[in-house]
Amino acid sequence: MTTPIHPTAVISPSARLGTGVQVGPYAVIEADTEIGDGCVVDAHAMIRRYTRMGAGNRVHPGAVLGGLPQDLGFDPAVETFVLVGDGNVFREGVTVSRATQAGGATRIGSQCYFMNNSHVGHDCALGDHNILAANVLLGGHVQVGERVFFGGGAVVHQFCRIGPFAMIRGMAGVNKDVLPYALVGGAPIRHYRLNTVGLRRNGIEGANYRALNDAFRRLRKRESLDDLPDTPEMRFLRNWLAAASKRSIAGFIAPGVKMED
Q: Is the distance from CB of 132 to CB of 153 less than 8 angstroms?
């Protein structure tokens, strides 16, 4: 890219571009969009109407952000959004759909990495520092915490919740909520153990780790967590379990499998 805005790029006069934005050949930026400072929109990428991006995002060739939701009942005239934080990477062929309800938004946090041909469906909400490997598919209304890793080809059913610090094995088909801090996989998919490597990389060790390990043992036996230590992770887990869900985890923990390494 030799110039910040390539002469073949198509940019709506109503698009708002921040300082230092680069736009490659044949890229398209539609009306009513906002592109934050320092973003790079590579060749043949498309930023569609009602997309709002923070600073420092990179959109690789062929990616489409803000496409119409894949919902047969959606009226394209309805104003809905894609809201993107800072420092995300969208590799080749990534697609992100905007929301379905008037004024609603598909939300992506900051510092996420979307590998080639991954898809974020309408009305999803993703936290920070998530990684979606190649060909991952998130159905509509999926909620994802922070620092979740999705292995290649994983597919998540609509309305599932994926707790923070979870790891989804490649090619998994997720049709229930995924507990925070867990490693899930198999066919049918099951919770197998704590995501030990991910937890330790993020400083969740010692007594805090042991409390989570005890909690997962009890969840397998359908026992109460009330008398376990009141660590930050345990408070979050209790609140997460108490929240309403359309895809509960009942029967989703593999029996007889050790939670720890």
A: no
